TrEMBL record:
Residue span, FAD-binding domain: 2-334
Annotated Gene3D superfamilies: 3.30.70.2450, 3.40.30.120, FAD/NAD(P)-binding domain
Alphabetical list of InterPro entries matching this protein: FAD-bd (IPR002938), FAD/NAD-bd_sf (IPR036188), RIFMO-like (IPR050641)
Keywords per UniProt: FAD, Flavoprotein, Monooxygenase, Oxidoreductase
UniProt keyword Ribonucleoprotein present: no
Protein name: Monooxygenase
Organism per entry: Paractinoplanes toevensis
One Pfam entry name: Rng_hyd_C
The protein's required cofactors: FAD
GO terms, molecular function: FAD binding; oxidoreductase activity, acting on paired donors, with incorporation or reduction of molecular oxygen, NAD(P)H as one donor, and incorporation of one atom of oxygen
Amino acid sequence: MFDVIIAGCGPTGAMLAAELRLHDVRVLVLEKDTAPASFVRIVGLHIRSIELMAMRGLLDRVLEHGRRRPAGSYFAAIDKPAPPGLDSAYAYLLGIRQPVIVRLLEEHAIALGAQVRRGAAVAGLEQDDEGVTVQLAGGERLRSRYLVGCDGARSAVRKLLGVGFPGEAARNETLMGEMEMGVPAEEIAAGVAAAGETGGRFWLRPVGVGVYSVVVPAAGVSDRSEPPTLEDFRQRLRAVAGTDFGVHSPRWLSRFGDATRLADRYRVGRVLLAGDAAHIHPPIGGQGLNLGVQDAFNLGWKLAAQIRGWAPESLLDTYQAERRPVAEDVLDNTRAQTELLSAGAGPRAARRLLTRLMDFDEVNRYLLEKITGIGIRYDFGAGPDLLGRRLPDIEVKPGRLYDRLHRGRGLLLDRTERLTAGGWSDRVDHLADPTAALDVPALLLRPDGHVAWIGDDQHGLDEQLARWFGSPTG
């Protein structure tokens, strides 16, 4: 019997498996595909996801395979430079091939002891007071204490649970890819400027020497069940811009719709949902993969605490309470971006206005922090603004804060040098450092890097240790 079975070995499932293994949870990951996806698409890791990689010691490995781009605002594809003083040591966008990030996270999970079975599709499930029985498509039955569906937008787990997935069906299809251009940059800029007067989901942006990111409406080309071709892009570019710009040598090609849906619930008993199984939205702003990985980071330590026996009552329920509102916000901002990219006169006027408003640092910063995930604040009750937010990778003695979070434990960062984690020291590390780059006396970090307490008295600290880390030992 396993502690947790995870359906789906995409980035969300692999990240969750690794997080659970940090706490010695017995994990089996089931992946219905027999081999890793061959579909190559560049995805972007935003600032918060890059921070999470650093928190688990994965960033150097990921950086070897990615391409850094300067941080900037691109809400509704409106290009603006990043506002000054972004509060992160990792203020950049990292472009990386999706199969590569999935492979890196899967290898990380396996190195920590997770088991991965390919060609294993979930066909049925039953749960009781002790656990979940998972039936595979071939008839095999497996038993675990919990099941997590990380199996994508068409999640079998979600459907078997009967969880509603309300929202809006796709209205528009869009082609996206990276390819080389056969005409000079000046001609591309002029063509884009002329076509841009009509509005709509169309842009060409340089992403390397001679290589452009191309987005164009997909209306009237190919079957959506089939991968797009370079000829599809040529046809649609001619229709929208009057020229295909001599596109050739594609790096990757994809097609997406603007369906937007959110699961009614993230948990039914011993079965939970994460990633695209819980929420889908257009990829405008590149938030999807990041949202799923961050779901896994939030859920992993809480589910491990439940299994290891020290979780406070209702800790596991905070997963939905914290992450579902974040997904609602992402769905809303992608809806807004989709409207701003529409071709009507009203959306074009709103887009021109927003373009001017984004010249104000406050507006630019607000939208950038929303897209990149660094503006999230969980509701932990009344307190300083830092309470409930993630803590940046500040300097501590010795080195950097995130280097102290590799094991997925809580951390008491104590500038007073007189506090203690006491009976929670098996779950919470203590770093006494009066030189830490903080303007508060002490704080308690959860394993996901969010600030759970700020203060300087032991009694208040003990209350919050009990709230998040259960009863003390000894």
